[in-house]
Amino acid sequence: MKKKDVIIVGAGPVGLFAVHQLGIKGLNAVVIDNLDKIGGQCIELYPDKPIYDIPGVPECTGKELTDKLLEQIKPFKTEFFLNERVDEVRQDNKDEWTVKTNKGNEFLSPNIIIAGGVGSFEPRKLPIKEAEKFEGKYLFYSVRNKDDFKGKNITVFGGGDSALDWALELSKFSKINLIHRRNEFRGAPHTLSELKKLEKEGKVLIKTPCQLDAIEGEENIKSITLKFDDGKVEKINTDIVLSFFGLIMKLGPIAEWGLNMDKKTIQVNSENFQTNKKGIFAAGDICSYPGKLKLILSGFHEVALASVECFKRARPNEKYRFEFTTASKTIQERLGKK
Fold this sequence. Notes:
Largest sheet: 5 strands, parallel
Radius of gyration: 23 Å
Number of domains: 2
Strand content: 25-35%
CATH superfamily of the largest domain: FAD/NAD(P)-binding domain
Helix content: 10-25%
CATH topology of the largest domain: FAD/NAD(P)-binding domain
Shape: elongated
Oligomer: single chain
């Protein structure tokens, strides 16, 4: 059994910044994530998609943000346990929690920070049997590297931001067919407006209201058949299918930890983002409180405050002293700057 100051559940941006905030306070942490890679949704869903609302960073991709956060926490030599799920959490005494994973690893700590985004997730798949054989080759539910889609005839399914954003981004170097089951789109009006302009220029084809009826092809996709609400059927040539029908969210064992829940989020206070269980904190998209905004920068703020309470629990005999990174020699030494 490994003893740590803090156990972090989730290796997305918020979990990574939690490592930093704990590290500059002299606390050690371990990170557990059920994905096989570091970066959470940023890597799993939009590694190559531009992000525009990180303070001080006009534009970066999900991968670039992940890489920068990893670089920032290098001095702390944090151990990651990937492709591993927390199966059991128990309190053997009032001050410490024992965490056990599905691979038999056990950790003891006074603090747990749940930074698990929206929990584990999987895409809603296309509801036709022939779709499965093309998955990962010619049919995708996320974009890992947009360069893989250059010069292709791409059909994008969906009406939300992911579908519209990727249709617009990939239209820069590929032919795009945008398909939605309704006439109304849920994505940002500005993005839809840009796509409508491209449609008039003949660079994007938009088809509504219709659904996928069939995929034709043997080794690779040759075409798809669309069925419209009025019964009309139309065949479209395509090389690649991208489907953005949303995600199926699963909290998994977290839902059984005895935490106060609000639908599929964990209720916390906004003072230190502690749950109803002392020593268990939640930050990022998985937590809820009055005024909550589901932004990465909000998660950064949440773990910054949670880390203070974590220090008090991990070092009960020490007085917490707030220090600025610009002036604190202690923090600069921890970051390897002195």
